[in-house]
Amino acid sequence: MIENRPWLTVCSHLVLLLGVFIVALPVWVALVASTHPSSAFGSGSIPMWFGDQALANWQQALVGKEGQASDLLRMTVNSLIMALGITFGKILISLLSAYAIVFFRFPFRSAAFWVIFFTLMLPVEVRIVPTYEVVANLDLLNSYTGLTLPLIASATATFLFRQCFMSIPGELVEAARIDGAGPIRFFFDILLPLSRTNIAALFVILFIYGWNQYLWPLIVTTDDAYYTLVMSVKRMLSVSDGDIAWNQVMVSTLLAMIPPVLVVIGMQKLFVKGLVETEK
Amino acid sequence: MSVYFPQKYLPYLLLLPQLLVTAVFFLWPAGQAVEQAFYQEDAFGLSREFVGLDNFIELFTSPEYFASLLTTMVFSFSVAFLGLAVALWLAVMADRVIRGAMVYQTLLIWPYAVAPALAGVLWWILFDPSMGPVALALDAIGLDWNHFVNGDQAMILVVISATWKQISYNFLFFLAGLQAIPRSLLEAAAIDGAGPSKRFWGIVFPLLSPTTFFLLVVNLVYAFFDTFGVIDATTQGGPGQSTTTMVYKVFNDGFVGLDLGSSAAQSVVLMVIVALMTVIQFRYIERKVQY
Looking at residue B283, which CATH number applies to its domain? Predict the structure, then answer.
């Protein structure tokens, strides 16, 4: 504290509370809307306080109406498979390639590095049509491989691990070699334990990235057995305007945002670390 | 580091998975896009003919493409400016209060985890002309809100949705930047009689400029490439073309309009833009390292 200005402190709190309020407003409305019957949305405004249909709506969404099973659970599983597949895939191949680039000297080392760097410049959105064609040619549409594999090349994760490995003192490598440890032993017994926090921090960031994929699952899946949560909300909205079941849309929206939000709040320290380190 | 493992073939084996995925899903499609950009394909994909630079010429002379370029600029700079301004304001306030800064941080950062498409849907409902509370409040003060017909209002809506999600990110970086500023500097200025606003503009803001510049680039990249979901889940580029950004147009012309040649040419243009932005980002990081 530099000086005591009580009014300014009060103002700061007010501004922050206003910020928190605006940030939370859409989710509040979604939460409230998910507790009303669908008839509540036909006329007038969206209710601002909880209704009594919460249990019924969530039950219908999660268990399904009588006679037909719910899609949401399967979509949740699909989302999880996609998010975890992308996360573990990215971490695995980035660990390996960063290991090769930092701890070995071989011809074309810098060429390999630049090829990986190049992927940073080609987000999937800008080359969406040809990427779709490649995946279609490989017969990977409507499969978990098609959902995850094309997204697991990651320049940022490779850079982060490279940075982290380069800070490991050369004496450690020397000592390991004198003690007779080969590169594989070194990788598992020394490198992996040393990069544990980096892996965990990256896990948080990549899980959110994978879970929130939207365009890619939208175009590579036409079979509803492979739909994911985030993309399905859009499909629920693409019926004619009067027929949208807003309460069900809100339940799905909330369900689709709960896992990543929980990950961010629960692992806040790792999340902040991961965010700051992947970007620098 | 100067100690390496002597194995000759192991490193190639280690690099293989990453390079394979990169080659198949990044370089090959990128190459295809470049090739396709020089051909004109009929709508059924049965035949194609080499047309040279025609796709590009058509693109750069089409008023629609310039409209989408303009839309992208308006959208990206609005998102970046609004996101930075709000986040900086909140971060300065959070840096001021001693009690509860961490609580505010927790309450402000979670939107980072919300998918852009879902952020769009949430705000879409708040602004729904017939039942959204915000739209009704605007109607009550005499502002007729209908983003289904009014292009400017549709743009405002996607800007708000996209910004809402990004504030958390900017906030974290600004807060970290603010906490890194030495207290002694601010105390010295206070003793010399500089008030809070003078200290902010005279000391804090200039010292934050590396963070601000970094965030500006990141936010522009985000608005360019990661906001497809916001637009697709809400306005779908409309009404008319008023929210069709360049990335949305690549998708729309390719998958909906089936004009593959034009879509590929647009991909090539976008790749050049990303390459430029990446170079700027790295230049900046290199410069920072030399400090």
Answer: 1.10.3720.10
